[in-house]
DNA sequence: GCCACTATATTCACAGACCTAACAAACTCG
DNA sequence: CGAGTTTGTTAGGTCTGTGAATATAGTGGC
């Protein structure tokens, strides 16, 4: 193949697989089980091409036949499915207060997850690399799979990143990480290819689509310690020129608003992000458990209070939600998506409070109504970023090689 | 070819040409003159492939050899260039107060332009189709080119659109146009393929890149009667699920802000758009010429006052600019572009007032500084949308057929 | 002015992807 | 049980793009 130069692919939105083999694998994976005829419809390839490609995938042990479909008046369809045990990938999501690991099989299912306390604010990058390497190895060992089947590791952390140099740059609570090429270090340490992405973008890749209609353009609104978003087009994430697209946390929603760590003022994250919500709750005298509890853990405590009837906690969260609704409106206006998914650790606990408020604003904004944008909550919010990191690795070129 | 199904291409961001022939044509067009060796580098194709493809393009009369480059120690390069007179396309930009036509040759250069008064607010769609058809025919005739060389017509108007149905929907001052399939009617009337796009998106396609470094991800901030933006990735515009991406005019920049025609409140366009600027200027007692002067014409009058030293006019425009800077910041945060171009009729006159204010905000926002986003003014702002419409047609499949 | 040397472009034979057309297989229904 | 229907495969051909070898048109040494 090789029709499009590397140079012209640089923005990283990875224009749909030029590769028919990858297209078939993707189609089977997202469908669960399909027949060859259905694949011809989904992919636009001809029946003979599907036959050939599928045969090779079966020969390579990546796809299995899975029984017969029911007849519709003729020969019944032979169903195909991804051979889940063919390959595995690891996804790792690092933030200050938690470190999440997932092991994902070739079908895209999570076969193991592990959530650990984060390394904290003052962590030494080299020690974190060492810890992640050790724990990744342990995860693989305990799962009992053949380590040689692990394709690679997707690593995500809060953005922004400098993607071309593959280096984290100025994350909120980790300034001493600036310039540290963590994924390269992980590659060296583990002997596996590693991919670096920001958490929100990965979350967009990790969201399972459970809507009725076809969704080819969707976005994730991601809230962890910060607020971000990711855009997915036909299964490929859009990363922008420097890998920092979707920084909805740092759009200005209030002229003269509060100072943000990013240097700007009035940022959505500074006004309504988890850190601010926690600070407000503490100021209001809410009991969030240990005073050392910070970040998403403290935020979750507020959400639990609100859900058990604390009206002060609820008011604080509803205020935050009204600002996030504004961010959601910006996402739909800028990206024109069919679906917006709320995801990330913060939404995992507080999502039910945020969802209706955000839905209401999207539906009442004119363009939202005109184009019928759906807003849903991701039930896997806590692991979304790690899963997304794994799935991005799963969709890489090497994942389909024999 | 046909590797990727129509279904999977639906979002309309048209992943870089799968077609090598189109890739070569695009590369030559954007380079001006290039040699075959350079094409191998730009396109990633091998030398023999370039030879073959270029020979066919020359045989088909789409490309010419254009002398020798200087030798670098061996055989000098044979330079290639697009045969400008091979084909032509027409671009039409309709807004309430102006109707702009451009005739663009196969090299992408504007060979004729024509600006006429717009049809006004109460125009009858069928009459406008008739008028555009007549004037398009006249434009082609007066230019003296062979009408059979005209490939098609790109038509743009203020968004939002319903792209799949190819129908304009609820533009600000043209509600009675809702549901009118103008490009289909133009196709019937002119016997030429026509393409419908919103003005801001087309403007992104029409911006000439004159920056030093390679720009693969850029956006246009477009101001005409309304405010919009367009995103361009490797020469392909991103249109979103329904063709309404980039609606930066309707992001909320002020909670509880003024009512917008779109139904929402606090929209950038309602606060700082040309209509509001004109209303403020009239309220301040500024003389904008005829009281019947509206839209961009009235806005231009204010800009001229400001540029000739009227401090009230300047203050009003600077206030508008500070809000647009906010919109620009949102664009760079969401899209992560390398370049942001201010374009459109409103910037054509007032751009020099807006540019420094917008630049200042982009450069002072943390991510802007980190990633070095450039902000420039398009010198062809007035025609950008029409030119972009033409160029989009020029990049269509049929434009490279023999 | 002739001879290397070098960079540019082309020719030729071949591999692979994908298509059309014809065919085989496996079920339903009368 | 055989016609009809749907699913999947085989066979043959086209087209794109490749690698290896070759032709072309300059430069610079002597």
From TrEMBL, chains A, B:
Keyword Glycosyltransferase part of the UniProt annotation: no
SUPFAM superfamilies in alphabetical order: Actin-like ATPase domain, Winged helix' DNA-binding domain
Cross-referenced InterPro entries: ATPase_NBD, ROK, ROK_cs, WH-like_DNA-bd_sf, WH_DNA-bd_sf
Key words, A-Z: Kinase, Transferase
GO molecular function, one term: kinase activity
PROSITE patterns (UniProt xref): ROK (PS01125)
Ribosomal protein found in the keyword field: no
Family note: Belongs to the ROK (NagC/XylR) family.
Protein name (database record): NBD/HSP70 family sugar kinase
UniProt organism field: Kribbella pratensis
């Amino acid at each position: 193949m090789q029709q499009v130069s590397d140079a012209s692919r640089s923005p990283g939105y990875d224009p749909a697989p030029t590769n028919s083999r990858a297209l078939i694998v993707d189609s089977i994976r997202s469908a669960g089980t399909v027949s060859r005829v259905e694949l011809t419809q989904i992919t636009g390839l001809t029946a003979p091409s599907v036959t050939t490609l599928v045969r090779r995938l079966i020969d390579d042990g990546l796809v299995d036949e899975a029984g017969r479909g029911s007849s519709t008046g003729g020969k019944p369809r032979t169903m195909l499915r991804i051979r889940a045990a063919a390959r595995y990938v690891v996804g790792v999501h690092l933030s200050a207060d938690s470190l999440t690991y997932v092991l994902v099989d070739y079908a895209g299912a999570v076969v193991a997850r592990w959530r650990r306390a984060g390394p904290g604010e003052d962590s030494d990058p080299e020690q974190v690399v060492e810890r992640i390497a050790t724990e990744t190895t342990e995860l693989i060992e305990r799962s009992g799979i053949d380590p040689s089947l692990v394709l690679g590791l997707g690593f995500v952390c809060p953005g922004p990143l400098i993607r071309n140099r593959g280096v984290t740059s100025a994350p909120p609570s980790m300034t001493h990480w600036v310039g540290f090429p963590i994924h390269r270090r992980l590659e060296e340490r583990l002997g596996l290819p590693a991919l670096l992405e920001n958490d929100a973008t990965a979350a967009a890749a990790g969201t399972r689509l459970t809507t009725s209609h076809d969704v080819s353009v969707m976005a994730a609104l991601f809230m962890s310690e910060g607020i971000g978003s990711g855009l997915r087009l036909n299964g490929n994430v859009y990363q922008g020129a420097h890998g920092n697209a979707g920084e909805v946390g740092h759009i200005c929603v209030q002229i003269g608003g509060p100072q943000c760590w990013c240097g700007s003022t009035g940022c959505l994250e500074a006004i309504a992000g988890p850190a601010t919500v926690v600070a407000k709750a503490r100021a209001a005298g809410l009991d969030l458990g240990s005073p050392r509890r910070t970040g998403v853990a403290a935020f979750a405590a507020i959400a639990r209070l609100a859900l058990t009837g604390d009206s002060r906690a609820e008011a604080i969260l509803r205020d935050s939600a009204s600002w996030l609704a504004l961010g959601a409106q910006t996402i739909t206006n800028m990206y024109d998506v069919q679906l917006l998914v709320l995801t990330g650790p913060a939404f995992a606990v507080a999502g039910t409070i945020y969802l209706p408020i955000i839905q209401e604003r999207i539906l009442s904004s004119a363009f939202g109504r005109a184009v019928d944008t759906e807003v849903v909550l991701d039930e896997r919010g806590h692991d979304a970023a790690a899963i997304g990191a794994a799935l991005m690795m799963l969709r890489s070129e090497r994942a389909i090689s024999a």
